[in-house]
Predict the structure.
Amino acid sequence: MTEVRVADCPLCEEPGGRVVFEAPDLRVVHAAEEGFPAFYRVVWKSHVAEWSDLPPEHRAMCMDAVVAVEQCLRDALAPAKINLAALGNMVPHLHWHVIARFEWDTRFPSPVWAAAQRDRDPQREAAIEVKLEALERDMARRLAAHPLNRSS
């Protein structure tokens, strides 16, 4: 797929977080979202706004990456739940949020964008953060082993 970029699109101009893995068609980034230490994005590189803009083989490739990120989070962190979202209202560039949620996080069980229900727990957040380096190495290894890392 030829990469299309759009001026003034933040995900065309910037990675959208700290890059964990990059393939020809997509990248996986750790998003710096305060209070959510295990918040990742799978970003389709070419500027498309909607899931249905991708041909079936690219949708499958993107969803395989989402599943790999989810599985790494589950294996390493044993969260209460994984949230998946592809809203794109604020940034109409196709990307998936993959977020490990914990019963102690400030907004659980509500969405991460809801009002806080409790104070942050810096010790628990730090305990998650120390696991991210190994988790991300495993994530990059799993993603690199998949055919998605080849040009389409």
Notes: The two ends are 6 Å apart (CA to CA). The domain at 10-149 is CATH 3.30.428.10 (HIT family, subunit A).
